[in-house]
Amino acid sequence: MSTVLLVIGVVIGVAYIYRHIVVKGERCTSQARLHGKTVIVTGSNTGIGKTTAIDLAQRGARVILACRCKKRGEAALEEIRRESGSNQVVFMQLDLGNLKSVRSFTETFLKSEPRLDILINNAGICLQGQTEDGFGLMFGVNHLGHFLLTNLLLGRLKEGRASRIINVSSMAHNFGKVDFDCLNTNKALGLGTSFIRVLQIYCDSKLCNVLFNHELAKRLQGTKVTCYALHPGAISSELGRNTSLFLQIILKPITTFFFKNTIQGCQTTLHCALQAGIEPLSGRYFSNCTVRDLYAKAKDDAAAKKLWEMSERLCALV
């Protein structure tokens, strides 16, 4: 009996340490105030996007909530204003799965907002399907929509004294690949709707985020704009809300105990957006508020350039 109790005690102790040290993670230490600055956060009606928006609004920023669903976006708007105590929070509808919507959003923003200091490409989905333009849903939303959005806003970002672009990726990119043949043939990163296939395509889309960030940094050299990719951590949020109810029920105890909450999960985003002195690290990848090395495939110059040029064509930018 004493041995059993000892084992149970060790397991509980290890779980406690994991949750309070590994899961909790580092916090953004920047005390930066953002009065007079404007930030766009995509997917900010839920999850780490919403907690990121709350923090930035509390610091005095004018925060643009760029969200697909008008009802959810307006509900988040009221909550973020209430939580932050700021009325400098605005909802603008943006459907990253519709390139026409991306263009409409940027046109509205550029007409109504005189500056842009930080662009946070946060929105992401883990769901198979097709966009309005016929692209694979995860390729279209997680990569292509943000690619077009960023390019259409670069002019305004370059007008600032020191602007930043934050690309929220995931450590899942380590398991990803970019199948250019499949993109050319099917306008998707992969086909199939099984759980394993959906996870693989999600990983592929996250690799696109890191490759985009890598190539973007090169193209921003000589400007006052810098960019950073990041892994926010395993987050207990609504990203998996489109999975089956059975799977959600099974995973709930695991995600609740072993995953970060959204406040913990937004810390690396805030670090990349706010931390002073990281400009020389433009193009790098962060996790747990620390710069990390990447595997060769995630900083492949040829693949990053090829993805960029293909994305330009698909978005009709060339």
UniProtKB/TrEMBL annotation:
UniProt xrefs under InterPro entries: NAD(P)-bd_dom_sf (IPR036291), SDR_fam (IPR002347)
Keywords, in A-Z order: Oxidoreductase
Pfam families reported for this sequence: adh_short (PF00106)
Assigned protein family: Belongs to the short-chain dehydrogenases/reductases (SDR) family.
Protein name: Dehydrogenase/reductase (SDR family) member 13b.1
Organism: Ataeniobius toweri
